[in-house]
Amino acid sequence: MTQAPAPSRASALRAVPDRVRNYSQGAIRGTHPESRSLALLVLGTILAGISVIAFKSVPTSVLVLPLAMASVLLGPATLPWFTVFLLLVVTTTVPSEPMTNRFAAQIVLLFVLALLVLLGSFRRSRLGVAGARGEQMLVDLRDRILARTGISELPRAWFAESVVRSAGGTPFSGDFVVSARNGDLFGVAVVDVSGKGEDAATRALLLAGAFGGLLGAVPAEQFLPSANEYLIRQDWDEGFATAVHLSINLETGEFQLRTAGHPPAAHYVAGAGKWDLTQSNGPALGLIHGEGYDASVGVMRPGDAMLLYTDGLVETRDRDIMLGVDKLVGQAERLLGTGFADGAGSLVDVLGSPNDDRALIVIHRRQGTPALR
Asked: Does domain 150-365 correspond to CATH entry 3.60.40.10?
């Protein structure tokens, strides 16, 4: 059986006007979801206005319901016109009731709410989609990007766990973890974008997608320089980030560690039973063109572990960052002494401030298991 050839790029481009035309015709016929919502809201507003005029027991404030529903369902192109239409319906109900203080307050309240809806609509016009669909689009974008972050699948001889928590407990954080595995090579980066919480979240989402792609596409020695140049090209006002990048050969345990203005990694040496701090010299990302990043090299032997983290776990206003690193190592000795499962979450619970973004990854090479599957 022969397989039908894939459509060419030219045919795909010729299909674009058809899709646009179908979308427009659907909107005109009312088959587009927003058109149906608009028709139902207009009908509901008219019926509510008639009820207010015909039945004295129905208050004018009932028109708040279609206004509230419109603010959620309609986009910035139709919401202002619907709001004006609703206010016209409100004005037709004024002669139907005596002008009491209570009735006047209802009218004023409706106009104030309509003004707030209009202001919100003007802000949404920057996004170009309706409130509910716009919010869903942002959530979907966040989930798609975050699905590319986190930890790649590792062989049985290795264990890794990461935790990312944002300032204020929102799902959006200025810290993130990305990883990639190509055969025996495993790379992971922990990045701290300038700012915190939702203020840094949009930049962190963009960088998480970009850095996740870079991590699996360039050699280890090129990752931080490439990330640095990418961030410089963004030309953001707060255009810098710190990062630590670890590249491990899963067969031999040999690693290369590079930092960009980031706190040192903590390497647990099982043979000596102690933690060592490992760091290389390099400026934060997004500050200097053409900067190189030297590597600290070593070997993770069976039983060894590595902690990569952001400064939200070790730095506070009244404590030097190195004192925080010492505290992190002390807590790691106590909490991870009996095993590394769930260790990342335990450390984040004990350390850091809920008012700052925090990210931590624990990587452990298990003893007594084959190196690769």
From this structure: yes
